[in-house]
Amino acid sequence: MKVVERYIMRRAFLLFVGALCWTLAIAWTTQVLARIDLVTDSGQSALAFFEVAALIIPTIIPIVVPFAMAGSAAQTLSVMNGDSELVVISAAGASRSVIVKPILILAVLASLLSLFVQNGVEPYARQRNRDLIANSRADFLSLVLQEGTFRKIDDGLFVQIGERLPGDRLASIFVADSRQQGTDLIYYAKSGAVIDQDKEKVLLMNDGVVQRKTLNGDVSVVHFTSYAFDLSTFDADTSGVTLLPKDRTTSYLLNPDPNDPRYQREPYAYSTELHKRFSEWMLPFAFALIALAVAGDARSHREARVHPLITTICITLVVRWFVFFIEGQAKTHPSYAYGLYVVPIATSLIALWFIGTQRTMELPRGWADAISSFAQRVNERLTALKLRLKARLTGAGKGAA
């Protein structure tokens, strides 16, 4: 590899790693926040939460890698063009392959990374994630019925246990049940225990009262010697973990169990997932070609209405939307599954045509004008806000003086 090619590849690789890390961090944070209840509601340790959080990363990588590849390639070429480096390379008599080759090598590596993660790591990470969540709910009742805590079991159902006694007995039991619309039930009991009754979990309360309040304000209080409160619906069933098609390994998707109830209900979902894993790995390569078609020419971009990076991201978003749309349709119409291969291949061929004919891929004029006007309005508002803040700070400084 030539010195110039190594230089371009090094710059693109550093930007790719940076873009990948930042994008992963943002996407990971949004996914982790949705699972914070694993600790707050289920009483799990922070270690279990961080393990679940770590297992989310492989599920995000195949989605993020293509955009990181496109952004890093477009930004690298755009900066080099702005610094006249592409012009110098062209004037030195170097062929266009000097620019294209390092970007495509990096794109091939990114595609192989996506292929490996999506087929070799992601399914096992998803399965482990589901096992952890199922295990966190396996002993749900014992976690909820903790001494001295007021815990929410379900919407409108709260339980508090004052004290745990020897022999798995409970003392000072309080239950508030407002799940039935128009009726509030409050149970007090001196003692009780969680027992198995006809293979179901039951909270047996002894020596207590139940207070019933209706919507019109009527209140009735009934004393009971013993009362059985059904908890079986809140005891998680851990006899088996339900696996979706995206949780299955590639080998299973190639030969699914015909007796699998979910496969019998949604056979096309399994074939769609298989086609997805064998097609989406081409997206980083296709997106790199888009970046080359947009920003790979050694000429001034002053005539362009939109920055090449924005143009690249907009085009790749449209392509990704088509992939998502076809994937959704293929789950009910199997003929759409072939479109999962058509989109990246057709995108690559179109980008190659732009590169081969030395044309610049740009957004439609209407889109470019809309983006430019929007960016101009944002810039004007930010400038006005900056001036107002500066004026206020100046006035505050004079007042203090």
Automatic annotation (TrEMBL):
<dbReference type="GO" id="GO:0015920">
    <property type="term" value="P:lipopolysaccharide transport"/>
</dbReference>
<feature type="transmembrane region" description="Helical">
    <location>
        <begin position="281"/>
        <end position="299"/>
    </location>
</feature>
<feature type="transmembrane region" description="Helical">
    <location>
        <begin position="338"/>
        <end position="355"/>
    </location>
</feature>
<keyword id="KW-1003">Cell membrane</keyword>
<feature type="transmembrane region" description="Helical">
    <location>
        <begin position="46"/>
        <end position="70"/>
    </location>
</feature>
<feature type="transmembrane region" description="Helical">
    <location>
        <begin position="12"/>
        <end position="34"/>
    </location>
</feature>
<dbReference type="GO" id="GO:0043190">
    <property type="term" value="C:ATP-binding cassette (ABC) transporter complex"/>
</dbReference>
<keyword id="KW-1133">Transmembrane helix</keyword>
<keyword id="KW-0812">Transmembrane</keyword>
<dbReference type="Pfam" id="PF03739">
    <property type="entry name" value="LptF_LptG"/>
</dbReference>
<protein>
    <submittedName>
        <fullName>LPS export ABC transporter permease LptF</fullName>
    </submittedName>
</protein>
<keyword id="KW-0472">Membrane</keyword>
<feature type="transmembrane region" description="Helical">
    <location>
        <begin position="306"/>
        <end position="326"/>
    </location>
</feature>
<dbReference type="GO" id="GO:0055085">
    <property type="term" value="P:transmembrane transport"/>
</dbReference>
<dbReference type="InterPro" id="IPR030922">
    <property type="entry name" value="LptF"/>
</dbReference>
<dbReference type="InterPro" id="IPR005495">
    <property type="entry name" value="LptG/LptF_permease"/>
</dbReference>
